Every structure is written in structure tokens, then in C-alpha cells.
Amino acid sequence: MQEVGVGLYPSVSLLNHSCDPNCVIVFEGKQLLLHAVRHIQAEEELTVSYIDVMATSQERQKQLEKQYFFTCDCHRCETRHKDTEMLAGEEESWKELKASVPKVEELQSAKDWEQMVAVCQATLDKDRALPDNNLYVLKMLDLGMDGCIHLARWEDALQYGARTLRPFQLYYSGPHPVRGVQLMKVGKLQYHQGMLSQALDTLKQVSVLSGGEC
């Protein structure tokens, strides 16, 4: 999701944080809406994540301590749930990839799309034997798709984006809006490439996530 401004919402600001929240915040214009992302039991506390949940336990803890000055003790942090999937593959390989992600993000901020895509492609083309659900492979794929979209390299963008869908489903479970946005991007790329049946299937998933019917 992209940050576009700052707003003050006193009631929702009372919600506590969890790295495995049962709600997410979405906006319709200036109106803030709270959406459930899973079944909520009676009298269960409503929670949201103050940060992006697609990060390892260690990275989330560092960010929460730096920005919000507390240590999270939610179940996901205590059990390090999904860390194994995020750090899958040889550690030496993904550590090298991890070091490359901030450099690519700097190129993204500078809107140097050509160099950004070149670095993504060179990094991902190396034979690392890392799965797409590895956190740093996934981030590089997502950055590569974004760069290719800005360069109107639709086929390359689709190749990167299609590889992100299964990992996004793993890390943004339930009707999470971040997963919905990713599906929408890939669906539009499929449509642009004339892959009409695949685009329809992908966009149907967006409708289901948003509570629609297919």
C-alpha cells in the first residue's frame, strides 16, 4: 500500500497492535474503514498491525521499537511464525540478496527505473536456488514488477508479478487489501497481454477478497 498523507482518527487509534491482526485499515477517500481479515470470536480484541506484516520477527521487532517504542509479544513474534518460510534457502545466498534490496529501493525512490530493473534482473538471474517465498526474493520480484510497469515492459512485469502471487497469499492471508492490490496489478497485466481467461480468474479473486460474488 502507498502512503499518500496523514490523518487523525482518535477512535481507531485506540486499537492495539498485533503482527497477526484480525483487522486491517482501508480508506475510501478520507473515510477510514476497519475490515476483518478473519473470523473474530465474541469479545475478542480487535487488532491491527502498525507496520507491514511481510517481515521477519526480528525485523518487525526492530521497526516497532524504533517507531513505536515497544516490544511486541504477540503469538506470531513469540513463535516466529512464518520466519522459516521467509528465510527459506541457503543463508549465504539470501543474505547477499537482502543487502541488495535497500539499494534497489533507493533507485525506486529516485525513479531511476532503468537502473532499478537492471539491478533486479541481474540479482534474480543469479542461480541462488532460493524459492519465491523467500522474503528477499519476493521483495526483489515486487520491485522488478514495479520498475517494469513504469517502463511499460508489460511482459517482464507480468513474469515478475505472477511469481509473487502465491507468496503474497502465504504472508497476507485472508481478505487482505495488499494481496488484493497485487492480484489487481497482475490481472491487469494479464489482460494487457491478451491472456483473457487468466485475467478473469485473477480478477475474480479480487472480487472474492472484497466480499463480492463471482
From TrEMBL:
Please state what the protein is called: [histone H3]-lysine(4) N-trimethyltransferase
What UniProt keywords are attached to this protein's entry? Methyltransferase, S-adenosyl-L-methionine, Transferase
Recorded hits in Pfam families, A to Z, give: SET
A Gene Ontology MF term for this entry? histone H3K4 trimethyltransferase activity
Question: What's a GO cellular component annotated to this UniProt protein?
Answer: nucleus
Catalytic reactions on record: L-lysyl(4)-[histone H3] + 3 S-adenosyl-L-methionine = N(6),N(6),N(6)-trimethyl-L-lysyl(4)-[histone H3] + 3 S-adenosyl-L-homocysteine + 3 H(+)
Q: Which PANTHER family match?
A: HISTONE-LYSINE N-METHYLTRANSFERASE SMYD, HISTONE-LYSINE N-METHYLTRANSFERASE SMYD3
Q: Which organism is it from?
A: Callorhinchus milii
Q: Would I find Transferase among this entry's keywords?
A: yes
The SET domain is annotated at 1-51
Q: Which SUPFAM superfamilies match?
A: SET domain
Entry EC no(s): 2.1.1.354
Q: Which InterPro entries match?
A: H3K4_H4K5_MeTrfase, SET_dom, SET_dom_sf, TPR-like_helical_dom_sf
Q: Which GO terms describe its biological process?
A: methylation
Q: Which domain of life is it from?
A: Eukaryota
